């Protein structure tokens, strides 16, 4: 057969079984959702168990498994030209504390399924192919997302990554050493020939229409802020409004103002979320003395993002003045927007069309390893829809077997074009 | 001497020593305030230790100590006419979890100091005098404030009170039985001749001027609501604003609207506080699925309070519509405004003036036992200023020895007039 035979398909059932089996590692029963979820925080024993399951499959598929200094795994399938840079596919298998079984895993197991399919059909590519598993993509344990791929791409220094701590004070470095995961591959890694990642959308855009494939234009800029508001505790029944310094009211004013900024349309496609708020002392009859507030800003346009950040700072100063509180603001994460090259977008779109799948271009709302590896080589992403408005970071996260197979079929053909014919 | 000798004064030092000694029972070190506070939740071992200390002092002062069915203590000093209804003074000694040493204790130990002073001077009154300690005034353990005095006055049924549980599921009844506090005095109690309570203001009105005595007009109406907002969790980076059902934004909109209602002046002297807010899952990059919000409304005017409650309900419906969340509202406490009779206000004002103390009429922002006992007999209250804007429910709560003595000197002379001369 020729490698550009468009009738070539992955084994959708095998992919689904692998997702299912990996989903049982770190499983827990979620009382709120009423079903099983996944809890596989990076470099915990559950994550290690997941890594061992998947690397076992990788070795069984004939791949050579290596690990870099920060625990990223690269499983290599030889090409006809082993001096050529590899085509890399992958994602992550670490999870948030209340996860589903698709986020990240589809990219890793989909990469493995591409290799298995090539093996089944005796296809050799010109370039080697590497399936990557990146460490701590979620940031759920050590507080910085895309940690492993950022080290691989050189954005974050290895020592800085190793020094990061979890909430119990355990460092990334000590966990890597404990599990023997600080491997021989140097970071930053050598640039791949190209990088492709298939992922669930984690949003509602594809789920609301009939579109089967999302062609990802790039990753939005992300800014995370932590605001600490300090007012004064006071008796709710005995303190006139004019004498209050109400930290909770200040938090509410900022939350409402952020929503108005988004609705105004003046900041392009800005998204703003106050996800976390903790009042102190948090009692019914005490005016809040303190409020901790997190702000998550996203924007595909870096200039519009900068304007939003500046105007938020002005809003904070106005709220301080109006309510008499003091507010300190700290940036806890900040990544610029990433635009994937046209060549990679076009490649994904072409193969989706060849396979008869409808597609839509969209920007990723979430950060992804592809956004980091884009610094090393032409990179791109394939999104597939999730049910329930694409709910994610939740045990209810669900993509159908058909949707998963769609994405990995597109990945297969795109990888074949990138890696080139070796045995025709 | 005559009992209306205006030169009669309490022993300010003895009062202060008693406050100090009781303040050491249930003391803990408060990390946030950097000083010692009091933690004497109702019917805990610390509360019992406090009761034993004070009833020991009561007995040493010659008082006959009895207890009613709900553990309220009445310490009786005989009068010339023991068939006459007693003049009652008192308050409570239970505390919130992070308390100072004045809230409630000044009223109880001040009542004891009045008796000690009468003893020192060999004064007999016509009416007996009773010093009362009411159970669970704070509501901090069993969730309903003024519980003991409400049972004494008949507003709350004994069985309902005994069935109330703390956060661990322990009932009032089992705690009363464990400590042997379910006494022989029937509830509702027989009406006293009159009731007077001296208390720290717990607010900033007196602390901002030179006024030494607050003449309490009455107690505001209090309504407590618990709002449960249910939206939908969503990825902060991938969910457009129009597809969100943001429980945290709904909470912020209600908080801001309540503040606007107060500022409008359309609801009289309305106070509104959102003291407690708990988002779920409370993570930086997840749109809040749920938010629990408490609302504390106060108003000296019952009609204006009713309008505020109705308009809040409208606001809640509007926020539901605007944000797509659903909100359930539950009333967790509701007491009408209490106006103390003119005779009692005039009595306090007259004796403050006789003693050369400046006074100011004000409405109590907090609920008090006097608001309950007012259903049984003419009742009144004397407020004294606290430092630091009258901060209370906090280890920083502080009234000076002079301010405490002022209030109890007024109490002494007012009690003497109410109880009548017995030995002139």
Explain the layout of strands and helices.
The structure is a homodimer of 424-residue chains.
Chain A (H helix, E strand, L loop, with lengths): L11 H12 L3 E4 L4 E4 L6 H16 L3 E4 L5 E5 L9 E6 L12 H16 L8 E6 L12 H7 L4 H6 L8 H7 L15 E7 L12 E7 L1 E10 L3 E2 L11 H18 L6 E3 L3 E4 L5 E2 L2 E10 L2 H22 L2 E10 L2 E2 L2 H13 L4 E6 L4 H5 L5 E6 L2 H4 L10 H19 L5
Parallel strand pairs in A: 5-6, 5-7, 7-18, 8-17
Antiparallel strand pairs in A: 1-2, 3-4, 4-6, 8-16, 8-18, 9-14, 9-15, 10-13, 11-14, 12-14
Helix pairs in contact in A: 1-3, 1-12, 3-12, 7-8, 9-12
Concise structural overview:
The structure is a homodimer of 424-residue chains. By secondary structure, chain A is an alpha+beta fold.
Do you know the CATH topology of the largest domain in chain A? Aminopeptidase
Oligomer: homodimer
Strand content of chain A: 15-25%
Largest sheet of chain A: 9 strands, mixed
Determine Rg of chain A (CA atoms, Å): 23 Å
- Domain count of chain A, please report it: 2
Total strand segments of chain A: 18
Number of helices of chain A: 12
The name of the CATH architecture of the largest domain in chain A is 3-Layer(aba) Sandwich
Task: Give the largest interface.
Answer: A-B, 61 and 61 residues
The assigned structural class of chain A equals alpha+beta
Mean residue pLDDT of chain A: 94
Low-confidence stretches of chain A: none
CATH superfamily of the largest domain in chain A: Zn peptidases
- Based on Cα principal axes, name the global outline of chain A: elongated
Considering DSSP H and I runs of 4 or more, what fraction of the residues of chain A is helical?
A: 25-40%
Instruction: Name the helix and strand elements of chain A from N-terminus to C-terminus, one letter apiece.
Output: HEEHEEEHEHHHEEEEHEEEEHEEHEHEHH
